[in-house]
Amino acid sequence: MDLIVHFAEGFLKLFQTGADTFISWMKGIVPVVLLLMVAMNTLIQLIGEHRINRLAMASSKNPLLRYMVLPFLGSFMLANPMALSLGRFLPEKYKPSYYASGAYFCHTSNGIFPHINPGELFIFLGIAAGIEQLGFSTAELAVRYCLVGIVMNFFAGWITDFTTKMVEKQQGIKLKTEVELHH
Q1: Contact of 79 with 87, CB cutoff 8 Å
Q2: Closest CA to 87 of 78, 75, 99
Q3: pLDDT above 90 as % of the chain
Q4: Is 35 exposed, middle or buried (0-12, 13-18, 19+ CB in 10 A)?
Q5: What pLDDT is recorded for position 171?
Q6: Tens digit of pLDDT for each residue in 29-61?
Q7: Where along the sequence do coiled-coil regions lie (predicted)?
Q8: Which of 43, 67, 152, 183 could form a disulfide with 157 if both were Cys (CB 3.0 to 4.6 A apart)?
Q9: How many angstroms separate the CA atoms of 25 and 8, rounded?
Q10: pLDDT per residue over 110-158, tens digit each?
Q11: Taking 80 as the threshold, does the pLDDT of residue 107 lie above it?
């Protein structure tokens, strides 16, 4: 009987800990994420969606813009999963690479810009808790994570360009290199 009682107490403590964490997030990170989302939507409206779309199309011509700047801007302004929608402005040949880079940006920028992917913020917060216990700055961790991510995410996209070429050759196909937008 003691074993069953001990199990029940532990089971309930698990949910109490989850509830305590949830309440702490409601007082801390949730309002920040909500306000960042409002700010980004406002910024998009002020800049104009058509201007953002033109930037995306212009970015398709250069690998640095295509896999470093465009995914970062998409993640920052549109958040996950909408950041990946900017890939529609790229030729078919670069869409797999943009997805590789863009998907990573939704993770590596999350520490400094929590509105990008709030569903996975718990991963960064778990690492940050350990960093805090060691007495280090979580802001420094977030900035470093973002900067390393920008470089590594570029390489993820660029390397995918090479693998896409290999698959094209293996399959005997040629993906389009021109953008075809249908309005």
Answers
A1: no
A2: 99
A3: 28
A4: exposed
A5: 94
A6: 778 777 777 877 787 788 887 787 777 778 888
A7: none
A8: 67
A9: 26
A10: 888 887 887 778 788 888 999 999 999 999 999 998 899 899 999 999 9
A11: yes
Residue 91 DSSP SS3: coil
> d(Cα 64, Cα 158) in Å, to the nearest integer?
9
**Residue position matching structure tokens 């913020």:** 121
DSSP category for residue 1: -
Q: With 0-12 CB in 10 A as exposed, 13-18 as middle and 19+ as buried, what is 140?
A: exposed
What count of Cα atoms within 13 Å lies in the side-chain half-sphere of residue 105?
A: 31
Residue 119 is encoded by which pair of tokens? 């569903």
Question: Residue 141: what residue type?
Answer: L
CA pair distance 165, 92, nearest whole angstrom: 12
* Spatial distance between the Cα atoms of 157 and 163, rounded to a whole number of angstroms: 10
**Integer CA distances (angstroms), 136 to 126, 127, 131, 157, in order:** 14, 12, 5, 32
Nearest residue to 77 via CA among 41, 105, 119, 109: 41
Residue type, 17: T
pTM exceeds 0.85, yes or no: no
Q: Give Rg (Cα) of the chain.
A: 21
* Residue 35 DSSP code: H
Question: What tokens appear for 36 in the block?
Answer: 């960042």
CA distance 99 to 92: 11
